[in-house]
Structures are given as C-alpha cells and as structure tokens.
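We store chain and fold; example below:
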Amino acid sequence: MKIRTFALLVSLLLAVLSSPAQATQEEDHSGHDHAPGMHGVPQSETAANWPESVVHQFELLAVQDGGRVKPLYTFGSFALLRMNAKRSVKLYEDTDAERKIGSSVWLLDLMVHPGIASTYENFSVSDPEVIEAMGLSVPGKKARDRYSFNELRPGLVKLEELKQQYGKIDPKVRTGLQSQVVDLYQNALSFTDLAGHFDFAGVQIPITGSTALQEFFPGREAVRFSEVLRRLPELKQLYVVLGGTPGAEAQAQEIERVLGFAETLAIRTQRVALIPPLGSADDAPAWLTPFDLFDRAWDGQPVAPEHLAAVQQMETLIDAAQNPAAFEAALGALTGTLKELASPRGESGKVASEVGFYNAKLLWKGLYSFILAFVVTSVMWLVPKNRLVYRAAIALTVIGTAFLIGAIVWRCILRGRPPVSTLYETILFITAVGCTVALVTEWIGRRRIALSAAAFLGMGGVFLANRYEWFDKQDTMPSLMAVLDTNFWLATHVTSITVGYAAGMLAALLGSIFLIAKVLRLKREDKGFYTALTRMTYGVLAFGLIFSIVGTILGGIWANDSWGRFWGWDPKENGALLICLAQIAILHGRMSGFLRAYGIAMAAAFQGTVVAFSWWGVNLLGVGLHSYGFTSGIKTVLLGYYIVQWGIVALGSVAWLIERAEKRAIAEAKSSSQAGGSASLVPSDLA
C-alpha cells in the first residue's frame, strides 16, 4: 500500500505540474525526442514528416474508449477537437509559412515525441480572461487564440486551483469563464496523459544502488518496465523478505523505489487501452493498459505471454522513434500482436471501415450538395420556365440526400445499431426523412415548393449536425447506456417517433413558407400555389401523425418493459403526447372547417415548436427518466428557433388580418357599386 500511494502521488504531480518533456527526462535512456521548439522556429523534425504508411498504420490501431472499440484515428480526432476546436493543428515552420497536420499525425507526435508536441499551439482559448485568471501573459496573442502546452505550463498550478473551485458548481449554472476554466483543465490533463503514455516504454530504471536487485537482474545496471512486470510477484516477495530482515532495510527501500517508479510509469498509461484481454468479450469486456497488467501482477496474477510481448513491442517501438524505417517495422509487429488478440473477440473488424467512413466525408459532401441545391432552387424561382435549372436542382438535392442516407447506413453497419440511438443521430435521420418526404411530395405535385423545402431542410439539418458535433466534441458513435441498449426498441419506438418528428418539422417549414410568401405578397395571383402548399402541409401532418401515435404507444410499451409502468407523465412522454395532440387538433380543425389555409399554415408553423420542445427542450429540464439526453448549450439555439417560428406566426397573423380587411373593403366596394348601378337604371320620372 505504501508503494502504491507513493506512485499515485508522484504520477499526479507529474501530470499537473510538469511538461511531457520533463516527465520523460527522468532518465537519460528515455528514447523520446525532447528537442525544444517554439513558435516561429523551424520544426523540421516533427512527425509531420512521418511516412504516410506509418501514419495510416498508427491510426488503424484499435483502442477501447468510452466502452467501445474504435481506431486511434477516431480517438485522436475527438481528443484534438476538444482541445483545439479543430481537427488539425497549424505548424509554423518559419516566420512566413505555416502548414497543417491532421489529428492522427498530432496524436502520433504527442505520444512518441511529446517534447515537440508541447510546442504545438493546440489549446483553443476563446476568452482572454481565462489566461489572465491563470496569471499568464503571453505576448503576441489575440483575444481569441491558441496556445501551446509550454505556454500554458507556468499557469497550470493556478488552473488546478480554479478547477477545484469551479468544478463544484453545477455545469448548468456555471458562467462562461468557469466552464472554460474547467474544460481547459481537463484538456491539459488529457494532453499530459497522452504525452506520458509511452514513458514506461522509453525509461530504463537504474538498479545500481541495490546489490539485491543486481543479483536479481544479473549483469544489469538498469531494467525495462517489461522486466519488472514479468517478475513483479518475485520482486514483491523479495521486498517483503528483505523488509523483515535486520540490516536489509536499505535494500528493501531500493526495491520499493524501483517498484514505485515502475508503477508511476504504469499509472500514466490509463488513458489509452490498446491491449485486448484474453477470453471472450462477454467474459472480459474491458481492454487493458500496462497499468492494468501491473495491477494484476501486483495482486499475484501472472501476466500472459501475449500481453508481455505487446509491452515489449511498445518498448521496441519507442526505441526506434528516431528511425522511421525501424519504427514502421516495430509498429507493424505491435499491430500484428494486438490484432491477434482482438480477432477472436470480434472487436476490431470494423476499425478500418470506421477510418474509411471518416475519410469519405459523406456528410460534408452532402452539405456541399445541399448548399448548391439551395442556390440552384433560388435561381429556379427567378427563371421558372427553365427546365434545365429545375432538373439540376432535383439532381443536387437527390445527391445530397443520397450522401446523407449513405452516411446513416454506414454508421448503422459500424455500430450494429438501428439508425437512431443518440441525439446527434436524430438530426441526421430527421433530416434524411424530411428530405425524402419532400422529394416524394415534389414528385407527386411538381410545384417546386417541396423541392425548395428539401434543399433548405437538407442544408440546415446537415449544418446543424456538424455544429452539434463541433459543440459537443464527443464521439458521435458512443456506447449506449443500459436503458437504450436494445436494438428492438431503437428500431421500433425511436425510429417511429423520429419519423414523426421529421414530418412535424417539414410541415412547420411548409407552413412557414406559406406565411412568409403571404407576408411578402408573393404569387398573389397564383391561387394554385397556396392551395398546393396547404395540401402539402395537410398531407405531411397526416403522415407524421401516424408515426407520432405509433411511436408514442411503442414508447409506453418500452417503458412498461424497462420501468414497470406504461405511462408516468415524464417530460419526454408529455412532449410526445403534445405532438400527437397538436397534430390531431390541426387535422380536426381542418376537417371541421374551423381552420382553412391561413389557419393550417399558422398552426403547422406553431406545432414545429412543440416538436422542437419534445425533441430537444425536455432534455434541458434535467429531470425525469429521459434526462440522459441533456446537452449543454443547446438552449440558445432552441430559443432562437422558438422566436423565429413565433415571429413567423405573428407576421402571418398580421398578413391575414390585412388580407381579410382588403377583401372586406373590396366586397363593400362591390356591394356599393352594385347598389349605385341599380339606382341609375331607374328612370328619373319614376324616381
């Protein structure tokens, strides 16, 4: 216990107070490159010059993070996104030039050459008050800028003090400054963890101060971590024996130092689990780190030869850090060993496909297609008789929808899940469904209205998904919490209810188009335009109501299966019920004649806010059994949507009153004209 407490304290001290370069300079045999670097100084030795084959092989290494196995490409991509608010880092090679490296090269640099990576400006700080609160003043920085770890390091002690203070505050009520302080601390800690991961592989532990250790490791002056790990039970027993032998206390203390230092190195590996355990994924779900192996050996469990070989190959890898050819060979050997461990468990087969998914950038291609489609549809309204422009708009919208659907299908294959299991995926799925329904509506009516709605919805939906990913900065394919971990209910209830969301949002868009067109007095002479819009809105609402009701009923069945009650007036359940009631009320109003064209448009636009509340708003309440969907920071966007929709409804009401007054005035004028005309036909002598 004494040794382990010492190791933990030393590790925490290194993580918070030291730079990665200093942490790995404990011994001269580190194997890491600690060449200093600073802004504006040539960095020709950076891993930006790694061969492409090395980078590709590195990013295909599988790691278990957040409960799922993913490639280091994904792991590094989101780690850098959290720190830098981008997936790339600018390197300044001289005073006039710069170049960018991607997240895989950045992670490779950070884990293999931490001294160099400490000079990279990869910490995004949007509020200069954060830097001031840390007691720092970095010349040449703008109000919103990026900083290197070396630039932040003098203020890390103060940053930790602030984090301890602000971390006790509920995230929902933190100020912007407090949230940024906590985030920066977490990012700095993550940076040091990643930078120190391979310290165990690069450091050799001297044993010349103990004759007992030199006899235990004959002919050696220093030992590797793998050697300590392999013989840890014997070393622990030797420590106990010497500790109880009079006059051997100094020898026991030296063994304690070696064991404590080895565990300190092992503790810093806990962030990245690269080693698959033996056995099935059900029997041993958690992947291992060198610390886990050390921990097991400490408890008397033998280290499997396959795991020991992986640790030794990591040491060989770091030894070859300065030789690209040798490094690539060592990386290949390590990759082969880890694949052999993971293959029987069936956990790494989709790693290459996931890298391919992100490199394909289907969502970005879809966004570009939708933007072009929106531009072309805008031109289409200026030249309504040009069929070439119309066909181009259809083609671009279909291509954008195809990219979006392709991305959703690929994600389903990677996750082995139905298309909707997270809030991020609801954006993609609702956008895809909305665009598809709008395209089908356009194919039926050919009025160009639904086509324009599809282009706008696709552009806005994919943009929102990208912004959500940027804002949340978390893996968008996470492991599911227990209550959601069921493919049957995800495929039935969740899919049905999100189809209802999609139809509701599309109906709101069509209703908004009707009202905006009325406010701007567009197509005043084309009654068919507004009649078609009303029919589209009604049809989409009827379509959505079916899925909203079915999804709500299935949700109750799921709730009964999971929690033992069909209905509990939970905020999410109430939101789903509100959607059903709102859509039923609109359809009944239309059937009874109480709502006509204007009324249906205004009601549909308003029910869009009801859908948004059920989709996102209830998550902001942070209460109920469905509070797992809380997303910090969405409140502003949601309120903005409410204001826009309510504003459109209000303007539409004004337009309706004006149009009604105009019709009444025209009717009165006609009535007056008819009355005057009849009087003039009467002969004066009969008057």
In short: The two ends are 121 Å apart (CA to CA). The chain is about 65% helix and 5% strand. Residues 280 and 344 are 7 Å apart (CA to CA). The chain has a mean pLDDT of 86.
